[in-house]
């Protein structure tokens, strides 16, 4: 509104996230009953996930759209964007720079997912997470392993520590040790380093990978709960925990696999399901950030607004293709 735009919001849009229609109206939005009519006349559409291809086909030619659009993941969606000449900004393509942090939806949503994953693990586990001294004896703290030290993984480390667990974190990048330890976790060193140039991990040789897997499998025998968070944007999740590793874990152990949406870090993960694998519970929750919808929505909205502010000026769209955030996020990619 401050940028001079007129904003339309579909009635009931925020109900499931506990945002009533009155809140949007108070903020200055116009509530509409027929979203299709509003979409067909909009210059800019903001969404969480991509609309269906038939909805994209109704947008005004040349309109801009911002959200987690994943155009490469659906040929029909990609064709709808191209055929309507839409200026699409898939926020998952946003450069990971300091300036872009306030627009980084992957990080904000991963933080919520990492937090919720640990709560799921604590709920599924048949044990306490913290150490307790009781008249019935002393109960040792649960041992939790977090795989992946990205935003979700670090949030999982911090949350598990707050619940009183003994926490370890494994990442192929040794430079994450300091971040893990700053949150009270222990960096799990399997004796194989994937340190590469420029801060990126290098590919392991077959021998190195086999040794890493052997050591990890042995270590998992003493772990009570695992939270898997390793992901590669635009590619299937790396397979880290094999079926044989799960078979070697103690009965009552728990695995919560945040990478379920892209195949899972665990070989036995079934997206959207929680299964029993020989006494080990394996959970593959989907869209986990939505389980914290209120705060996840607030963070996503702020990210999307900050990005939209780059292209809305005095109530009109203005694309500054010299701005690397616009130039590197837009899809289809611009030539030159």
UniProtKB/TrEMBL annotation:
The keyword NAD applies. It catalyses: NAD(+) + NADPH + H(+)(in) = NADH + NADP(+) + H(+)(out). The transhydrogenation between NADH and NADP is coupled to respiration and ATP hydrolysis and functions as a proton pump across the membrane. Keywords: NAD, NADP, Nucleotide-binding, Translocase. InterPro entries: Ala_DH/PNT_CS2 (IPR008143), AlaDH/PNT_N (IPR007886), AlaDH/PNT_NAD(H)-bd (IPR007698), NAD(P)-bd_dom_sf (IPR036291). The keyword Transmembrane does not apply. Residues 122-284 form the Alanine dehydrogenase/pyridine nucleotide transhydrogenase NAD(H)-binding domain. Residues 1-113 form the Alanine dehydrogenase/pyridine nucleotide transhydrogenase N-terminal domain. Its EC number is 7.1.1.1. It comes from the Bacteria. The lineage of its organism: Bacteria, Pseudomonadati, Pseudomonadota, Gammaproteobacteria, Lysobacterales. The gene is pntA. This is proton-translocating NAD(P)(+) transhydrogenase. SMART domains: AlaDh_PNT_C, AlaDh_PNT_N. CDD domains: Rubrum_tdh (cd05304). Belongs to the AlaDH/PNT family. It is an enzyme of class 7 (translocase). It holds the Pfam family AlaDh_PNT_N.
